[in-house]
Amino acid sequence: MKPAHCILLLVALVVGVPLPLARAQDFEQPPIAYSTATPNNVVSKLIDEFESGRLQLARGEEHGYLPALLKALAIPESSQVLVFSQTSLQRERISPRTPRAIYFNDQAYVGFCQQGEVLEISVSDPQLGAVFYTLDQNSEKEPAFVRLTDSCLLCHSSSRTENVPGHLVRSLYVTSSGQPIFSGGSNIVDHTTPFDRRWGGWYVTGTHGDQTHLGNLVVPGREVPSTIDNEAGQNVKELGNRFAVDKYLTPHSDIVALMVLEHQTLVQNRITKASFATRQALHYQVELNRALGEPGEMRLQSTTSRIASAGEDLVEALLFLEEAELRAPVAGTSGYAEEFTKRGPRDEQGRSLRDFDLERRMFRYPCSYLIYSEAFDALPGEMQDFVWRRLWEILAEGKDAEKFAHLSAEDRATVLEILRTTKAGLPDYWEVSPAR
User: Fold this and answer.
1) Same domain membership, residue 417 and residue 320
2) Between these two residues, 379 and 155, which has the higher pLDDT value?
3) Are residues 248 and 141 part of one domain?
4) What is the overall mean pLDDT for the chain?
5) Residue-wise pLDDT tens digits, 72-106
């Protein structure tokens, strides 16, 4: 009999299957095949409608196709946030005087630059993670959507995005020309990031008490000073003295929209990671078992481990583990919070996972609204089983109470009740009343 390690090496060479410890996120290979797979998401469906002539997109002089595209994707203008660091596709058009605008909803993102040649579009695809497109803004050409892969993946598929095609929000110091000062350091921002490290290179409108952040700050030279004075950047309600706000759809870069954006990118990346890890592990399992003459469904320990690891990361993000605490109330300026909250769904008592707190934490009920997303519902059954079991253990049975100490007994009971009323397709055991 051949030693086990020899058999594994032989199988890897013969069938081209990566060993579990070799490259766990090789998403250009089967079963993901990211760049060659056909996307199926809200943007690809819109493109089909547009190219078939069933959907018309009106073009305006100042913003091109932006208003029409936002309407077609049901993205609210109040979601507008403004970034002035040169860290994206059309970097030469971005500066503190001409920030890039980003608009988003639960699934899609649209980027707009003044005098930009294209609109930048990305979407959370249920099977492929973040998928990127451009829409030509040139009035002399027929408008065309183009899918991008390699050029976007240089930044959008690294450890910053959970090693899957994903989205990210960065905070860094920026000069008056819009150039990032990388020597000053940078942070990937999500709901765990301390308030005082957020929004470097972004405009921020809204109030937040005595909490401080790095938004609205332009560094005058090429070096970050040892002492940063950003008092003028705090609790800013208007941006008209910084750039021409009338060049944008709204004059806001709403602080609540920024906070939601940061949370959303983390959870979407974790959902993609959970999907990829499960599908890759099951693919490897089938190929290895076939090579060894075993039934394809015979479970490998590595399959169970990979599903559990990625699933636990997702559960932690869904339940806001290690969320940075707010020390003062936060309020936006654009009406985004009110629009976001209206989307529901709500339980029989009128409660929703979209209800904000914004005094001590972001949401009143600490479970992500992205649990209703198409990408979450499209997770493989093995990952769904793991996530729902873990959520039941934590919320209903009180397991790992020390790890999830941020969840009070009331939090756990309320989230459980909201999900039971508003989430379809729950496992049967969720119908059982939890022990008290």
Assistant:
1) yes
2) 379
3) yes
4) 91
5) 999 999 999 999 999 888 889 999 999 999 999 99
Residues 144 and 84 in one domain: yes
Q: Is the pLDDT of residue 348 over 80?
A: yes
Statement to judge: residues 281 and 353 lie in one domain: yes
The answer to whether residues 250 and 283 belong to one domain is no
pLDDT (tens digit, 9 = 90+) per residue, 37-84? Answer: 999 999 999 999 999 999 999 999 999 999 999 999 999 999 999 999
Angle at alpha carbon of residue 129, lines to 377 and 117, rounded to 5°? 130
More confident residue, 105 or 25: 105
pTM exceeds 0.90 for this model: yes
Query: Could you tell me if 252 and 319 lie in one domain?
Result: no
Q: Which domain holds residue 401?
A: 266-431
The reply to whether 366 and 226 lie within a common domain is: no
3-state secondary structure the chain: CCCHHHHHHHHHHHHCCCCCCCCCCCCCCCCCCCCCCCCCCHHHHHHHHHHCCCCCCCCECCCECHHHHHHHCCCCHHHCEEECCCCCCCHHHCECCECEEEEECCCEEEEECCCCCEEEEEEEECCCEEEEEEEECCCCCCCCEEEECHHHHHHHCCHHHCCCCCCCCEEECEECCCCECHHHCEEECCCCCCHHHCCCCEECECECCCCCCCCCCCECCCCCCCCCCCHHHCCCCCCCCCCCHHHCCCCCCEHHHHHHHHHHHHHHHHHHHHHHHHHHHHHHHHHHHHHCCCCCCCCCHHHHHHHHHHHHHHHHHHCCCCCCCCCCCCECCCCHHHHHHHCCCCCCCCCCCCCECCCCCCECCCCCHHHHCHHHHCCCHHHHHHHHHHHHHHHCCCCCCCCCCCCCHHHHHHHHHHHHHHCCCCCHHHHCCCCC
**pLDDT category of residue 369 using cuts at 50, 70 and 90:** very high
Predicted pLDDT of residue 2: 38
Task: Report the number of distinct structural domains present in the chain.
Answer: 2
Residue 208 CA to residue 212 CA, distance in Å, equals 8
The pLDDT tens digits for 209-236 are 999 999 999 999 888 988 889 999 999 9
Do the domain assignments include residue 190? yes
Q: Are 137 and 116 in contact (CB under 8 A)?
A: yes
**pLDDT at residue 8 tops 70:** no
Based on the domain organization, do 97 and 236 belong to the same domain? yes
